[in-house]
Design a protein that fits this description.
Length: about 120
Amino acid sequence: MRRARFLKVVLMAATAATVFSASAISAPLQHGAGVAAAVPSLTEKVWCRYGQCNDNGGGAAVGGLVGGLIGGVIAAGAANAAAQQEAAAAQQHAASCAQRYRSYDAASNTFQAKDGRRYPCQ
């Protein structure tokens, strides 16, 4: 019981530290008046951590969503076509066996031979 309580306290402290440090990390950099005056007016400083600064990841998220949807539709169509081909092949097989053997049983895919045994239809 003590261990569980200790674990809760540690997790709460870690969560609080993460939440409060995130605001300090994302805060804009503060420049003094002397630093701003030293930089030429034609220069623009851009502070980016990851990738392009003006993208914000929105385009990539939408592209990923659209790509995932299109991929899902293609995969579903391929699976449906494969299932239809498999069903058609099974029907052809059953029709062929029924035509060859009078005692053919489609449920077990077997026929009865003259010796009384049942054999699978090939």
